[in-house]
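Inverse folding, one chain.
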C-alpha cells in the first residue's frame, strides 16, 4: 500500500520505517530540509537501538523515501499519517498548530479520497477539528466533493525499544466509524496482527482517550509506588519486599511498579498535564491525575533532600559524581529528566556536579554546557575523581556491577545516593558505604 507520513520525529520515523519494512511504499515528509537531507544519507536524528540500520536498508530498497515536497507526498499515500509534535501550551494543554497545519496541507493538495490517520497524541476531539479544518480548505478550493476520513490510531512506543514495540504491538487501536476505512486499516496492519488479533476498532473519541488513559494509568502506578516508597522509608519497611509482595497478585502485576526519582520523558508528564487541562476545560476536576502529577513533581526532589541532609544542610563547595542523565536508559532524551531537577537544586545550593551518561552527554552539553558548576566526564570512573559522594539517577546496565572498591577509594565520603534501587543495601554496608536508596532505610 502507498503510505505518507507527515513528521519524521520519534513516532513518524519509527512507524514509517516499520511500515516500509513489511513491504508498504512509504514516503516520510518533513518541513525541516536539513533533517530530510540527513535522513536521505541514512543519518537519524535520535538515538534509538536498531533504527538506523532499518532506515538504511529500507531506503536502499526504495520502499522508504524522504522528502520536503508536500504535493508529491499527498499525491502518494492513500493513507496519510499525521505524526507531528504536539508541544505543551503554556497552560499544559496540547498545542495542535502543527497537526492542523498538516491537515491544511493535505486538503490543499489532495485530488482523490484520503484516509487521514492521527498518530500524534492528541486531545479528545482533535479528529473532529482536523475534519473541520480540511473541509474548510476543500470548500475554499472549490473541491468540496473530495472525500476523506479522519482516524485516530494512537501509538504506544517506548523510547529505547520503539522499533520492537512497533514491530510487535500489544494492540492496534483504530478509531473510526467508517467501515471502508476499517478495511483499509486492517490491510495496512495485517502483517502485525497475523498470529494474534491485535486490532481493536472503536469510535474516534474513545481511541483518542485510550491513549491518554494508558499513559495516565502507567503514570499513576509509578506515583502510587513512589508514595508507598516514601511511606515505607518513614515506617521502616522495605519497598522492594513490598513491590514483590504486591506484584505477585496478577491483578496488580510486576510491571511499572518500580519506585524511583519520578517519571520523566516527553510523554507521561505532558499527557498527564494535557488530560488535566482537557478535564478542566469542561469543568471536571480530575482529582487523581492532579495527585499523580503533584507526587511526581515532589519525587524529583527527594534525592536532593537526602543529599542535603547527609551533608548537614551545607552543600556549598561539595562535589557530587552523577551517573545517569537521560530520563531512562537506552535513550539520550533529557526532556523532563529527574537529573535536571537534581542538578539545578545542587547548583542552587552551591555544589558542583561531575556527570556521566552513556548516551546523553551531547544533550547535556547542549542544555548546560556553559555552566562552571558542571563537568562532563568521559567515563563513569572519571566522574568519581575528587568527588564527595556518588548519585545514581538512571538505571543504565553499565551501572549494575561497578567496581565498588574503586568507588570507595575515589570518594571523600563513601556514600551512594541511589535513585533506582540498583544495589543490595546489606552488601553496600559490607563494602563500607553509607547507602541511600528509595523506600528502604539507609544502610551504613
Ligand atoms: C511511555 C509509555 O510507556 C509508552 O507506552 C507510550 O507510547 C509513550 O510513553 C508515549 O506516549 O509516546 P516512554 O516515555 O518512552 O514511554 O518511557 P517509559 O519507559 O514508559 O518510562 C517513563 C518514565 O517512567 C521514566 O522516567 C521511567 O524511569 C519511569 N518509570 C517507569 C518508573 O519510575 N518506574 C517504573 O516502574 C516504570
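Residues assigned per position:
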Amino acid at each position: 500500500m502507498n503510505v505518507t507520513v507527515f513528521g519524521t520525529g520519534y513516532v513518524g520515523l519509527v512507524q514509517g520505517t516499520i511500515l516500509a519494512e513489511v513491504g508498504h511504499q512509504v514516503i516520510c515528509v518533513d518541513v525541516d530540509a536539513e533533517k530530510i537531507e540527513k535522513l536521505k544519507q541514512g543519518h537519524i536524528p535520535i538515538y534509538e537501538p536498531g533504527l538506523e540500520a532499518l532506515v538504511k536498508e529500507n531506503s536502499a530498497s526504495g520502499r522508504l523515501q524522504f522528502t520536503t515536497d508536500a504535493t508529491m507526498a499527498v499525491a502518494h499515500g492513500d493513507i496519510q499519517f499525521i505524526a507531528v509534535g504536539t508541544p505543551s501550551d503554556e497552560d499544559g494543554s496540547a498545542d495542535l498548530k502543527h497537526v492542523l497545519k498538516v491537515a491544511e496541507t493535505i486538503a490543499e493538495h489532495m485530488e482523490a479520497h484520503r484516509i487521514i490517520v492521527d498518530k500524534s497524541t492528541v486531545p479528545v476531539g482533535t479528529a473532529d477539528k482536523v475534519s473541520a479544518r480540511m473541509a474548510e480548505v476543500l470548500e475554499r478550493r472549490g473541491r468540496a466533493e473530495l472525500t476523506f476520513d479522519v482516524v485516530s490510531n494512537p501509538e504506544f512506543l517506548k523510547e529505547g525499544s520503539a522499533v520492537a514495540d512497533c514491530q510487535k504491538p500489544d494492540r492496534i487501536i483504530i478509531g473510526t466509524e467508517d467501515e471502508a476505512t476499517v478495511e483499509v486499516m486492517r490491510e495496512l496492519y495485517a502483517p502485525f496482527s497475523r498470529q494474534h488479533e491485535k486490532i481493536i476498532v472503536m469510535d474516534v473519541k474513545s481511541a483518542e482517550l485510550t491513549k491518554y488513559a494508558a499513559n495516565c494509568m502507567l503514570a499513576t502506578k509509578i506515583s502510587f509506588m513512589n508514595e508507598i516508597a516514601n511511606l515505607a522509608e518513614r515506617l521502616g519497611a522495605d519497598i522492594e519486599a513490598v513491590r514483590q509482595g504486591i506484584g505477585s497478585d496478577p491483578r496488580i502485576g510486576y510491571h511499572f511498579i518500580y519506585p524511583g526519582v519520578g517519571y520523566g520523558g516527553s510523554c507521561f508528564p505532558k499527557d498527564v498535564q494535557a488530560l488535566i487541562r482537557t478535564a478542566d476545560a469542561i469543568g471536571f476536576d480530575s482529582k487523581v491525575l492532579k495527585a499523580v502529577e503533584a507526587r511526581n513533581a515532589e519525587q524529583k526532589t527527594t534525592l536532593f533532600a537526602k543529599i542535603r541532609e547527609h551533608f548537614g544542610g551545607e552543600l556549598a563547595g561539595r562535589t557530587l559524581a552523577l551517573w545517569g542523565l537521560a530520563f531512562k536508559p537506552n535513550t539520550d532524551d533529557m526532556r523532563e529528566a529527574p537529573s535536571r531537577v537534581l542538578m539545578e537544586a545542587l547548583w542552587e545550593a552551591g555544589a558542583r556536579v561531575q556527570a556521566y551518561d552513556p548516551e546523553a552527554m551531547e544533550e547535556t552539553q547542549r542544555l548546560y554546557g556553559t555552566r562552571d558548576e558542571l563537568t562532563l566526564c568521559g567515563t563513569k570512573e572519571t566522574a568519581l575523581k575528587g568527588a564527595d559522594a556518588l548519585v545514581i539517577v538512571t538505571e543504565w546496565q553499565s551501572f549494575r556491577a561497578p567496581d565498588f572498591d574503586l568507588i570507595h577509594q575515589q570518594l571523600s565520603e563513601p556514600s551512594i545516593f541511589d535513585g533506582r534501587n540498583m544495589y543490595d543495601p546489606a552488601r553496600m554496608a559490607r563494602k563500607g558505604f553509607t547507602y541511600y536508596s528509595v523506600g528502604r532505610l539507609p544502610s551504613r
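Residues 121, 155-159, 215, 218, 222, 256-258, 260, 263-265, 267-268, 327-328 surround uridine-5'-diphosphate-glucuronic acid (CB under 6 Å). The longest helix spans residues 204-235.
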